[in-house]
Amino acid sequence: MEYIKEIEKFCKDSFSKEKSVIIPIYLEFEFNKNQINDVWRFIEKKYSYSFFFSKKFDLSSKDKNTYMGYNPSKIITREKNKNYIIEDGKKNQSNESIDDLINLELNKKKFVVPNFPNFTGGFVAFFGYESISLNEKIPIYPMKKGDFPEVVLMLYETIFVFNEQKNSLRIFDNIQIDPGHTLKNRIEDSKKIIKNAYSALLKMSITPNNKIFKPRPSHSNHTKLEFCKKVNKAKEYIKQGEVFQIVLSQKFERKTQVIPSEVLFALKEINPSPYLFHYKFANFNIIGSSPELLIKSINGKIKVKPIAGTRKMSSKQDENKKIAEELLKDEKEMAEHLMLIDLGRNDVGKVSKIGSVNLIKKMEIEFYSHVMHIVSEVEGEKNNDLDFFDIFFSGFPAGTVTGAPKIRAMELINELEPCRRGFYSGGIGLIDYSKDFDSCIAIRSMQIYKEKATFQAGAGIVFDSIPENEYQECINKLIVLERALTIAEQGKKSP
User: Fold this and answer.
1) pLDDT at 161 over 50
2) Contact of 378 with 357, CB cutoff 8 Å
3) Structural domains in the chain plus CATH codes
4) pLDDT tier, 57 (very low <50, low <70, confident <90, very high otherwise)
5) ∠ CA 468-290-430 to the nearest 5 degrees?
6) What is the β-pairing status of strands 275-281 and 245-255?
7) How far apart are alpha carbons 287 and 481 in whole angstroms?
């Protein structure tokens, strides 16, 4: 706690401007990385509202941490065009907009310490695909009973940050100091909260998962023939000049009694990706291992990462090299990717300073467990006048899951797809008290609710798409989710 004097000066300077401040207090402990999975098993079983969010596979990022938390102090949801606040066990409708409800918590000044992780407390966020209606007048399917809310924002004041490289655990507790109040006793109270949380982890008891369930078949909301007909319909719109591309998806459902955390850890083992997450919201579980950044704003830099162009991986390394070379020579895939680079530039440019947008990675191949992708990155310098809502919705939903032009593509998606997308192609991420945020696209993801797993994948339809190939692309993308479910159902416990 060497930074106490810095905190006192920071508070004094901030209070002179009549602004409340957020102070993250933390203690650091040694912690065996092999226990991280058990910590989440313990939290998931005990707490109805909790989260797991890992970025440790993002090799290009300095932020290689696993975040967890439980019992949020406040939850904001959007359901059937109404906003709600859940606090102290009570759920009340709010007349405030989602934007205002977010800013109410974030319009405070945060004390930032060098070398802190990018997230030390704030909102753990979920925006479903249909939440685009907050920002654009797009036709969407109405929400039905059993659908996950369009927006869920869980405010966490106390979080766990694990660093596997250092075998360390930092527990953060965020305290708010208002003008006219002092730090007296607050820091010591916060340290007690942290020590109690750590003691609970040391005493956690994990019951071995010996249950085995027979894997059941999954069922699509399209037959192959139906999907191919919709691809041809999409191609008609493209030929008419309505759009350049439409991303059509199909949804699969599978009955299961699996323990959700075991699916997460199966994905962790078989499909290491830049983002790994599990959000538990009452009886809903959203689980995924997403390869794709949606949009992030860290230290004044805004970044998007278009991924488009997919091939199934071979079990032989030499063959994968040839497949990658062929992919980069495929005119259809390259044209599609270039279009999405331009869309990414446009999205970032809307919220960046003039002349600051750059293409920092162009058409590189990234390899995953079952597929390879063409990847690019676009970066810009943040326009300081904008808030989270402005920046997030500048790129949401991503063009890689809608098509282009984005608005017309979404209108046609509503026409051609038979139901809500829900969690699929939405946004999952963390919004720090500093207003920095990082989010990924909810792909390679699933929802588990009342013994039913739901997962979805799409394919980008262009002028010369072959319907059968686009159908197969969806199937290829979902192989890893089917496999993770089966591994978890068969009781093969991940370390």
Assistant:
1) yes
2) yes
3) 4-216+260-300+382-393+421-450 (3.60.120.10)
4) very low
5) 145
6) unpaired
7) 10
